[in-house]
Design brief:
This protein is of the alpha/beta class. The protein is built from nine helices and 14 strands. The strands form two sheets. The chain has an eight-stranded mixed beta sheet, covered by helices on one side. The chain starts with a strand and ends with a helix. The model has no long low-confidence stretch (mean pLDDT 96).
């Protein structure tokens, strides 16, 4: 590459801040604009990263994307705005990195995927956990057969906030664990069940319980809540010979807990009990996302891990879960 890609970043909130940091520090990109409806956020970003006057700080996202020199756009705006912004960016021949979920409607996602193909632009979704070193190492462990025949899984994602106003706890939290299970299993759910409760904002459930059923017979349950001070970020896959545990808040985030039963005279005796800490390489997942996005742009090839098509499939499942909650 002869010169850095010129990128605009839309959204300067909590996640947009991380995107600005990564692309500002990246040798392959030149941040030419930061867009946010809140002028005070723009001022904070300008001071935090000592952005020069050449970086435009504005509320006008359409004006920025219409600039011919803008080649890439990273989008960290509310999910309800994604469709309009991404569609416009693609028609302006920009490659797009979008925060999850891609949109709130699977048909819109598919439309954007087809548009990206027509425009010969790359559409990548920031499903950050799919680039997490622990998730990547966990897939290797499962593929090795260390836990035996896969049986079921469970995940808990709870904390006291942050509370979103644009989407409910399902749309905010479920996509992470859904993406991990899909990635590890290499399949997508064929059936879902769900229930939810609401306390804070009418129409936006605070806690959701989900059951995912996969073609292989594997079943997973999700517990999602932003109204629970017992903070957990824990996911497990149970097999015939052990359980693989990803506990993001633990000092040992990836554990293989082995063990099975030995049957004799109608009794079941635990055997082979062993706890193994799985070593994982260091690395910031979001940096890996940004690196992969730029690689996809350079090669003009879609991202198999987290393309728009992957994002569309996840949104389709979320819509099915949402329908179960409404019913």
């Amino acid at each position: 590459m002869d010169k850095p890609f010129k990128i605009a970043i839309l959204g300067a909130g909590r996640w947009g801040n991380h995107l600005i940091r990564n692309f500002w520090e990246h040798p392959q990109t030149e941040v030419v604009a930061v867009v946010d409806p809140n002028p005070s956020r723009l001022e904070v970003m300008k001071n935090q990263y000592s952005l020069p006057d050449g970086v435009e700080l504005t509320q006008d996202w359409q004006g920025i994307l219409a600039r011919p020199e803008v080649e890439l756009v990273a989008i960290a705006t509310p999910a309800s705005t994604h469709y309009d912004i991404i569609k416009y960016a693609l028609t302006q021949n920009c490659h797009v990195l979008a925060e999850k979920p891609l949109t709130l409607d699977a048909s819109e996602c598919l439309e954007l995927c087809h548009l990206a193909e027509t425009q010969h632009r790359q559409l990548v979704v920031d499903h950050t956990y799919l680039f997490h070193p622990v998730v990547q190492r966990g897939q290797e462990v499962l593929s090795s057969g260390a836990v035996g025949e896969l049986r079921y899984g469970y995940a808990t994602r709870t904390h006291l906030g942050p509370v979103r106003q644009d989407v409910n706890a399902l749309w905010d939290l479920a996509i992470h664990d859904l993406a991990i299970f899909n990635h590890w299993l290499g399949e997508t759910p064929i059936e879902v069940e769900a229930t939810a409760d609401t306390w804070l904002q009418p129409g936006l459930p605070d806690v959701v319980w989900v059951k995912l059923i996969y073609p292989s017979g594997f079943k997973a349950t999700l517990h999602l809540c932003w109204l629970n001070p017992d903070k957990q970020r824990r996911l497990a896959v149970v097999g015939s010979q052990g359980t693989l545990i990803f506990d993001e808040l633990s000092s040992d985030p990836l554990i293989l807990q082995q063990g099975q039963f030995e049957a004799q005279d109608g009794n079941f005796t635990p055997v082979g009990m062993k706890r193994e800490v799985i070593s994982t390489p260091a690395g910031e997942p979001l940096k890996a996302v940004c690196d992969r996005f730029l690689q996809c742009v350079e090669q003009n090839q879609p991202c198999p891990q987290s393309s728009g098509w992957v994002g569309a499939d996840l949104v389709r499942t979320l819509q099915q879960i949402q329908l179960k909650i409404k019913n």
